[in-house]
Recover the amino acids of this structure.
């Protein structure tokens, strides 16, 4: 079996391979980097360049934040790309603006916002090997690990463990641990 890598170099093959599955609901993101590989005549595309800041004049602040994150000085920091919000004129250099706007409208009109605005969390849940509630499973795992610790005030650690498990549960992340 051959491996398939969906890169811009084999865009046409990739597009044909998955278009069949998604029919009309498949859109490709054009960026300033990959736009040279994709014809402006392609219809199922939107401009989806990375955005790190809104205005070009915010570039210096972005560079400072990168230096802080990397623990380097400004002179040691590689210049991050100037990925700021592009206005329509700049976007039109990479993609047919009319096609982009039509596709963005189509995507937003077909997005089910009821799921987002329902006030209900939609976290994935994962079954565990013991088939018990996830909170109990996490609590058992943590208490078992706690039992392996020596020279500690077990009650103090157990109180803190219970508090942390409650925080995780109240945020809805119990299945992620």
């Amino acid at each position: 079996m051959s491996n398939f890598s969906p890169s811009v170099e084999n865009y046409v093959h990739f597009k044909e391979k998955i278009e069949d599955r998604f029919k009309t609901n498949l859109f490709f993101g054009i960026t300033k980097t990959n736009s040279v590989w994709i014809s402006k005549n392609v219809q199922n595309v939107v401009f989806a360049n990375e955005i790190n800041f809104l205005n070009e004049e915010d570039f210096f602040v972005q560079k400072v934040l990168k230096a802080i994150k990397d623990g380097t000085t400004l002179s040691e920091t590689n210049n991050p790309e100037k990925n700021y919000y592009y206005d329509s004129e700049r976007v039109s250099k990479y993609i047919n603006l009319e096609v982009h706007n039509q596709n963005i409208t189509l995507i937003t009109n077909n997005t089910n916002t009821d799921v987002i605005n329902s006030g209900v969390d939609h976290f994935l849940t994962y079954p565990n090997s013991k088939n018990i509630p996830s909170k109990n499973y996490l609590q058992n795992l943590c208490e078992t690990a706690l039992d392996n610790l020596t020279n500690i005030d077990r009650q103090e650690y157990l109180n803190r463990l219970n508090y942390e498990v409650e925080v995780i549960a109240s945020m809805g992340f119990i299945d992620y641990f």
